[in-house]
Each structure stands twice: as structure tokens, then as C-alpha cells.
Amino acid sequence: MKLKALLNHLHISAKIEEDLMITGITSHSKKVKPGYLFFAISGVQKDGHQYIQEAFQNGALAVFGEYPNAQNNDLYFYAEDTKRLLSRAASYYYGEPYKKHKMTGITGTNGKTTTSFLLQHILVSHGITSSLFGTVHHYINSSIINSSHTTPDPVTLQKMLNESQDEAVVMEVSSHGLEQKRIEGITYDQAIFLNLTHDHLDYHGTMESYFQCKAKLFTYIKPKGTAIICSEGTYGKRLITDLSSKNNLQVWTYGKRKTDHFYIEDVGKNFFNLVHETLQVTVPLPLPGEYNAMNTTAAIAAALDYGIPIKSSVAYLSSFHGIPGRFEEMMLFNGTEVIIDYAHTPDGVLQVLEAARKKAESRPFFHVFGFRGKRDLSKRTEMISLSLEYSDHTILTVDDLNGITQEQLIEETKEAIPVRANSPTIIADRTEAIFYALKKAPPKSVVIITGKGPESYKETYRYGTDSDLSTVEYFQSLNQAVL
Known about the structure:
Helix content is 34%, strand content 22%. The strands form four sheets. Strands 6-9-5-10-11-12-13-14-15 form a nine-stranded mixed beta sheet, with helices on both faces. The chain has a six-stranded mixed beta sheet with strand order 16-17-21-18-19-20, sandwiched between helices. It has helices at 3-9, 52-57, 82-93, 112-125, 154-163, 175-179, 201-204, 207-215, 234-244, 290-305, 310-317, 346-360, 380-390, 406-416, 430-440, 468-482, and strands spanning 24-26, 36-39, 62-65, 76-78, 102-107, 130-133, 137-140, 143-146, 168-172, 188-193, 221-230, 249-255, 262-265, 271-276, 279-284, 328-331, 337-341, 365-371, 393-398, 425-426, 446-450. 47% of the residues are buried. It has three domains: 3-93, 3-Layer(aba) Sandwich (Udp-n-acetylmuramoylalanyl-d-glutamate--2,6- Diaminopimelate Ligase, Chain: A, domain 1), CATH 3.40.1390; 97-317, UDP-N-acetylmuramoyl-L-alanine:D-glutamate ligase (3-Layer(aba) Sandwich), CATH 3.40.1190; 328-482, Mur ligase, C-terminal domain (Protein-Tyrosine Phosphatase, Chain A). By secondary structure, the protein is α/β, with parallel strands linked by helices. Helix 4 (112-125) packs across helix 11 (310-317) and helix 12 packs parallel to helix 13 (380-390).
């Protein structure tokens, strides 16, 4: 691609003597190679404008920055918003690859991964090839790619969209991805809003800012596209009201109201009923809990928008095999059931604890979880209170330190413990905390471990394992050796 064509697309007026060939795009100065465009981004920790000279020295063809006259160079171009410009430039550089796919964007505090996996399973079962971009991994052209961010950086995102030969793309869209404008240059055929609950206030500041950020996804829907929104909760209702006034958008709602387009009722352990217009079907529940009935319904509604009949989607769900780290279950030799789940918000923890407590019935119930350093402190007391309410034994530990000391994180955790008759046990080493719960739990108990899900440990712990699942498996192997 030539520079003049890209500048014209970005509406940047410039007189260039020689129309040079672009060989790549980046916002990392050390990744610049001859012929690359460098976009200087003002980040939270670093300001990319400090590295403009380094980018030119590394062979940058041109540089875009937010400071007028920052460089006495004809190939430095001023822009008001380089985050937005980078995403739009990457999309154009890779040939606006979203146009060759049917695009689905999914947002919400909880349930993005579950809903995306369910929808992709339905699509593939129906013969529609589908890429998946999300928290657990990315899946493109039948190959799994490791995921470092729920919504990838814009250059990586556009590159993967270009490489994908799949008919559909199902994408988790995080609030960070929206705020940082990573999806600029993409238009979605459909977008799904699952819920909005307490999370990321260390980043967004207030729930209202958090909501406004999430709502931005629906400004990226193409004309006559479809918005699928859960009507449960204040924010879902607000979004329904806001979007229903737009004539160029189809709005479908789902929830527990009989006025919803997709109405859920009679949620049991393994099934729930779904009503759509004159159709009523019994749907197998792929994962336990009412919240997963909601996620399943969102996937069924999205699949219907793809042209897949509801009865077909229901049939496909019977072969769904689950998701790494989402209510992932394992049975120990003594009959104790271990559940591993990614839940890390008050609402997410509440939902999984309700489902796990119902599963445990009167059996002893243990909960192991922790917190991450330099993250939202305001949700910790609520999460501990929920654990103390639902579980018989709460064991508090560490998720990730994120640059603070273990002692500081444990002290912050102690300060968040509410004054209650029962107190949690605190064990800083995560693997020791899990071993403690599994040893203390009598046979045929239920132990749930939340917060990390399928994520690998960032810290080094006593037992040398790399995830919650591998820690449980190691405990199991040691007990098997004893037997």
C-alpha cells in the first residue's frame, strides 16, 4: 500500500514529493522496520511521543503524533487521536478485512467467553466456519492461537481478521478494548450486551463511565444490523430504550420478562424453557446456573440472526463440551468435587457460588479465591462477604501480585474482611491454599476455586504448578501415589 492512499483514507492533507510504499504499522518504536508507519500513543504508563526519534532512526517511513510541530520533518503528521487513527489505518492497510466476514461483537462484565464459545459451537455445528477472538484463546482457520488480551491490539486484530478464511467472526469486546479504540475500522453485523456489574472501576472511575464505554459497541453496528440485549438489570433496560429509538437498528431483547423477544422460564439443574414468539422449547443447560441460561439464550438469539433455527441450535447444544476455566469440574478419588471458575467480580462470584452451592446441597462447601495487586479495592469486601455467606469454609489467597509485595496484598486483603462471626483462613501461597482446602474437605465435599480459571500463574509457588487445574491434578496424583 502507498502512503498517499492511506493519508487520503485517513483524511490527512499533506504534500508528499515521493509516494512511498508502506511495509507495516506499529505503535511500538522497537518494532519499527524500514517502511513502517509509527503511531505515537499517549499511554497510562508511557508516552509514545518520547520514542518518535527512535522510530525514525529505525527506518519509519512516517510518524503520526498528537503534538503539533513535534518534529521538524515532512513525514511527521499531526492527528488529534492517534489511538483511533492507528486502528483505522490498520484496518485499511489490511484491506478492511471485516467486510469478508459476518461479525459478532459481545460485551458485558460477565459471560463474554461462555456466550462466544456457545455461539461458535452452534455456528460450526451448523456448517458455518467461525473464528473466535477472546480471553481463553483465539481460534482462526481451525487453529488455536494464544491470547494475551481479550480484545487484541488493533494491528494484531486486523492482521488476524485478514488471515481468517472463516465465514463468521465471534469476538469478545472488552471495555478496555472499547476505551482504547481497538475496534475502530470494524463494523459489526450484530452486537450482544450481556450485563453490567461492578468491575474495572480502577480504570473507568464510575459505573456510569463504565456503562457509556460498553454502550459504544453499539455505535459500530452496520445499518439494519442487530442488537441483542439482556433486559435484566438497569443498564440493559437503559440500552434497550436508547437503541429502540434508532430506525436503522433491529433490537432483540432476552430475559425473564414475557415481553422479551426471547423469554426464559423454569431454569432447573439441567434444562430451562425458552419462548420465542409462538415457539416454546426445552433447552439443555450446558453449564449450571440461571446466568448460564441467559448466556445460552444470547447465543441462540445470535444464531437465529445468522439464519439458524432455534430448534437446530438446541440440538447442537447437546454436544457442547464446556469451556476451560468456566465451571470446570473434576472428581477426586475421595468423591470430592472440585470446580474451577474464572469468576473475579462480585456478580460473577455470586452467580458461580449460587450454582455451586445448589450442586453441593448439604455437603461441606469450600471456597478458595484471592485478589490481584493494583486493582479495584472497592469490590473486595463484597466478594469476601459473598463467600462467607455461601461457603462453609473460605480460604483467601493471592491471584497476581502485579508489582506489589505479597505482604502488601495480604494486608489489603485483611483490611477488606468484614466484621463477621465467621472468619476466613488466609494462606498467601496459592498452591498451599488449594492443597489446604482439598486436604481439609471431607470425602464427597465440594471445593470451588475462583479468580484464575484457565490462566497460568504469574507467581512462583511452593508446589511448582502453573495453574489452578494443574495444582488440583498434582494433589490428585500425590493422593493416588499414597493409595
